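Researcher: Predict the fold of Magnesium transporter MgtE.
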Amino acid sequence: MNQNPTADHITSLIQEGEFFKLKEILKHYEPAELVELIEAEEEREQLIVFRLLPLRLATQVFEYLDLEVQKHFLANLSQEKISDILNEMSPDDRTALLEFLPDDFVKELIQTLSEPERKVTLELLGYPEYSVGRLMTPDYIAIRESWTVQQVLDYIRRHGGQSETLSVLYVTDQRGVLIDDIRIREFLLSAPDRPVSELMDRRYVKLNAMQDQEAAIDVFRKNDRVALPVVNDDGVLFGIVTIDDILDIREEEDTEDIQKLGGSAALDEPYLATSIWSMVKKRAGWLVILLIGEMLTTSAMHHFEDDLQKAAVLGLFIPLIISAGGNAGSQATSLIIRAMSLGEFTLSDWWLVMRREIVSGLALGSILGVVGAMRIVLWAKVVDPGYFGPYWQLIAVTVGFSLLGIVLWGALSGAMLPMLLKRLGLDPATASAPFVATLVDVTGLIIYFSVATLVLRGTLL
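Model: Structure tokens for Magnesium transporter MgtE follow.
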């Protein structure tokens, strides 16, 4: 086939009842192409297309489908079809699906599995949520150090078809304890009679089944692996975790952090699948907190009400002042949270981070201070010479130094608050940009009017 069938073409074949022709067309396409095609169809057409796929291809497609489409299929396919698909699915993908289904439904589905697959699924579901054990698959190749290269290759030919990946083979002892991992290329390039023990260096990277999934992401990134072995506390090899599962977790973690940075609790489901009421509950809490925070801004302005009455011109620059500090804080927060997520520094580096933000804050504050002061100078000298009155130079100095102080404070607050939350065992993404902006709004007003009092005392104040 030279081109993919379009959704319109598929729909046309369904309407014409050309199911045999459609079945022949579909089996020539890759799973990812079929996923895109199915998700573009209406629900009725989705089921028809899926039922026409061979079991192996249907299983591969099912593993890549959106969760909502998977649920739709499970609710409408025959019990026999569901059983066949679940038994064919890789254990890790099957476990990931079952985690999102109601408990009663999960119990029914588990009963449809074959005895070996049911045992594996129950073992995986027995691990704590968000643990590495939930991600691992028991489909891997384990070998012995006493074997020869030829024996290993023969073993792969007999049993490799069920393995999740053949890029790395795992050497275990008689008790199943992991003692090494060896890339497949070593066997392909070695003499057939060479023993496995001569290929071993006994250096390997492993994960613990009870380890947090987020920690596993860092291990994969640092070691550039497509799969890693998973062991228990005694070092016994239980399974492997592959990079595709880690990428899914990474996407979930990034999505959660981005949603929190926007000032909302993380959504449990995709945006369009989340009910309006659930969406309101996720967002209302933070909005109330931020509103209460902004009330402190009103209190701060009330405290400086006399100064505002004496020098009403100061009120013109309040939006400029507080937005500059909030923007600087939001920038710093985003940079620090992302850097911590990537493991670029640890909490013990807080002083180094603070020094960098002090220097950056001073530089950025100076730039914005000059721009803000020059705006006043330009207005007073060119646009409307009498607008700011005889003390326009002092007003320019006030705005310039206020911007310097507020941007510096915003940068420090935005950088240190996520680290403080991390130290307290909380999610640093909770230090969302709106929260930092609200904090800087309140303190920014205090900085602004404090500078104004020092500079304008005896003149406008």
